[in-house]
Amino acid sequence: MVTSKDIAKEAGVSTMTVSNVINGNHQKVSAKNIELINELIKKYHYVPNLSARSLSSKSTKIIGVLVPLEGDYNFFKDPYLSELIGVIEYAIRKKGYFAMIRSVSTVSDISELVKNWNMDGAIFLLPHYDNILHKIISKNNLPLVSLDSYSDYKDVLNVGINDYKGGYIATKFLINKGHKKIAFAGPTKENVVKERFNGYKDALADSGIPYNDSIIYDVSPVYDLGLSIGKEISNRRGDITAVFATADIMGLGIIEGARLNGYAIPNDLSVIGFDNIEASIFSSPKLTTISQNITTKAECAIDLLTEKINNSTVKQNRYVLDVELIERQSVLQYNG
Amino acid sequence: MVTSKDIAKEAGVSTMTVSNVINGNHQKVSAKNIELINELIKKYHYVPNLSARSLSSKSTKIIGVLVPLEGDYNFFKDPYLSELIGVIEYAIRKKGYFAMIRSVSTVSDISELVKNWNMDGAIFLLPHYDNILHKIISKNNLPLVSLDSYSDYKDVLNVGINDYKGGYIATKFLINKGHKKIAFAGPTKENVVKERFNGYKDALADSGIPYNDSIIYDVSPVYDLGLSIGKEISNRRGDITAVFATADIMGLGIIEGARLNGYAIPNDLSVIGFDNIEASIFSSPKLTTISQNITTKAECAIDLLTEKINNSTVKQNRYVLDVELIERQSVLQYNG
DNA sequence: TGAACAAAGTTTATCGATAAACTAAACAAA
DNA sequence: TTTGTTTAGTTTATCGATAAACTTTGTTCA
Questions:
Q1: Which superfamily, per CATH, for A62-161+295-321?
Q2: What is the pLDDT of residues A326-335, one digit of tens each?
Q3: What Å value separates CA B50 and C1' C17?
Q4: Sheet holding A242-245: strands in order across?
Q5: What is the pTM of this model?
């Protein structure tokens, strides 16, 4: 293994000079030595040892990407989370940090992980744990950004989307297409979905459509439950003409469930989703949905996090990104 | 930050004794001290610093999970890879190691990564790079297991499935259902697919069906290309009655492409896939496919890898796992 | 001319844990 | 009694890089 000592010896300088070159402290090294050392680094394929670096510098350049794990649930199977993790990893790498992607299930899991690796910061995709966690992590004095949640705990950075608007424009769109019997599918009390639900209710109210409790499906946003909802809706023949699913994957389930029961989509039932995952283009019909730009979201989150890591204070600790409606094929004009 | 020094001082012993307790060298410590130290560890939430540990012990407990990255391609969008990574991470964690999931694009990327982190071992999901890589890595003396490839380089551990059999039984199944005009879709020259292709050809030959070059679609196994193939097949009206897609995601594309062109699946065209990804159950019709148990595959690979890490020699350095056919709805009896 | 300062380094101590070599006490066997 | 062995530790050096403090030489300007 090639170490900085080897390079230093060959260059006839001290290891500190090598260290200064590597870390770009160029004002401390003559131009000649910079060039010489860089050449030797290339020649011997020298790569600094990160363990040693972290140990002495107290900065690991590791950003934890912490994702929920529940039982046997494998987050890589959830297309939204999966895509999101991919772009986050990329954003982290672009900033010169290392992503440590980990599924975590308990609070002590996280605590241990953070201490183990001495992470410089972390990004959370864990809306459920919110309050408990943030306290614990803040105790560790760990810069952290929480994605898709509405944490009020100070020191916690927030990056999310305008969920209220998403819920509002999705519902308004269905209303404008002539629908009045619009079902809602998603966990109405959960952090982000709560806001989408508020948007849904306000859009109905603004159009003078009475809110109807019996067409609210308050369930987790997964494919299987979408399937059941699709079947149930088609059994209620005409009771519901459109449905707003708070996750595309659930919307796809609803479409399939309804279809299995002899419903044609969008002729018999209009469906609008949320997230604009890749699969929403591949489905048939292609899903009309509320789009959030996850790349922008990830970059914004990582920018914010690295700013906090380096300065410890940030200008703004909450960012709300815009959403837009993408019209495809799963919603039809209703003339009932 | 709590260190082993703090624990040692409080317990009235040296740090080595603490270290011995942590690492389970119990024959070096009295029962009384073991208990005392364990209590203090719990009391102060002490977690050993991995950087320090790696630096002194030369063992990082990190296993690199190296995944291909091509341009903007995000592997988290590929459902097969995505699921596979999930189960690999889980298998690694169960063995007491840490997974470092990384997308890599160039050889120097990998070399740098491995050196940077001083990985104990790595698992490769990179069939394309095969030869070049294995040499480089073996130079670093890194235990590594290659998934889904047929590397002949010694020191490289191989875990894969019986691709030949998969290709054979998929094709035979279509033949038994009365099909004779069976297209093949997949990269015929690529490592694993080559074997599936051999199985395909042999199954045809064994049934006396002539091989037809004009119905081989030699393309990458992605959804979009599946779409085009589906469209093309439906344009060739009756020229092809069944297709063997070497990846489910491509099969789903073919189904959709054909359907967009007015073909009904499976009535007008039978489709069989490969991999048995989650989405193959969610599709409509549900996809008949060749199933590989990725959990078993991942566990086998990690078992093998950790064995090599600890013993440096292994009993057997190639494992070939079985495959089976899962019949769902996308293949129909043909009576032409 | 001399004080102040900048440039280009070096030296030393340290991060936290561990491997390897060493010690001391208790006991057994010859 | 002496030697050997086991148990339960401790001490010391080290992993590789870096922060902080220090040195040396050359330059500036009042």
A1: Response regulator (3.40.50.2300)
A2: 999 999 999 8
A3: 9
A4: A216-217, A182-185, A242-245, A270-275, A288-291, A324-326
A5: 0.88
